[in-house]
Amino acid sequence: MTIDNFIPTLWSASLLENLNDAHVYAPLLNTDYEGEISGQGDTVKINAIGRVSVGTYVKNVTSISPETLDGGQQVLTITEADYFAFEIDDIDKAQQKPKLMSAAMKEAAWAMSDEVDVFIATMLEAGVATAAPDNTLTAVTVGTGAADDDAYETLVDLQVKLTESNIPRAGRWVVVPPWYHGLLLKDPRFVSFGTSPNLGVLKNGQIGQAAGFTIVESNNVPVSGAAYTVIAGYKGAATFAEQIDDPEAYRPETAFSDAVKGLHVYGAKVTRPYGLASVVATAA
After folding, report:
1. What is the architecture, at CATH level 2, of domain 3-283?
2. Which of 97, 7, 90 lies closest to 257, judged by CA?
3. Per residue in 42-66, pLDDT tens?
4. Is 183 helix (H, G, I), strand (E, B) or coil?
């Protein structure tokens, strides 16, 4: 099998599709400022304006003086750079290489998406804890016992906290670990009422809708010991940008093999901290 058999643009399309399908946290963020990202260290400047004041007007009395709007600027920096590189030895049968290469590309996509997932989850946890501590609920011990905190009602409390922060109701999400999902499945308010998504398995880890949230399940929920940080928010709370370089096929000089390598650069930023709410939850 020679290097001529590789089609870089074809491999690139395959990697992008697999990576996006594997994301859990990334689709919850907006990509409004992705722009022309080309490499690690690139920055995207995000402009904002302050609130506009409203005054009372009295005919023939009020003298209007326009206020000067306060401007602010945030910077999204592409801080992360991950790569993959693998080779397949010529000793393998030629007819197996396309299958091996396809499987290896999928594995690379899953591995890279896992890095993105952990990065974003950690960023969101820090963002709400540092910039919006009032949106961090009192820690709970969740279970089905009489003295335990209720999984469903905890989601309602997160919903209330976002509403108090004037966050739009549309598009709200919450990410829970598998054990938390298991508790929700035991609650008729989650499995017996509402629309069909409550009973269905949706894309990218989405497991249903309840308490005003699209509920997403992830193994990458931030955890310290047995305490998991359950984070809720909406798409406008944080932004994500990424660039995937075309995978390069080549023949290593020191081996008889075909090799592929690729680079993924990305960054994320919490732009509206009060668009997030969190609670540390421990299984009873």
Report:
1. Alpha-Beta Complex (3.90)
2. 90
3. 888 888 777 788 989 999 899 998 8
4. helix
